[in-house]
Amino acid sequence: MSGLGIGLAMGFVMQRGRFCMAGGIRDTYLQRDFTMVIAILIVISIQSIGLFLFYDLGWVKLPVGHFPWLATLVGGVIFGLGMAAAGSCSTGAYYRAAEGLAASVMAVFGFIAGSKLVRIDEVKGLLKPLTQQQFEDQTVYETLGVSPWAVVAALSLLTFWLAMNYLKGRRRPVALMSPRKSGLTHWLFESRWHPFMSALFIGILALLAWPASLESGRVGGVGISGPSAQLWDFVTTGNTKFFSWPGYFLIGLFTGAFIAARGSAEQRWRYPGHKVVLWGLVGGLLMGFGSGIAGGCMLGNAVVGTAVLSWQGWLFIPAILLGSWFFNYFALVRPIRLAKI
Question: Which residues, by range, are in coiled-coil regions (predicted)?
Answer without folding.
Answer: none
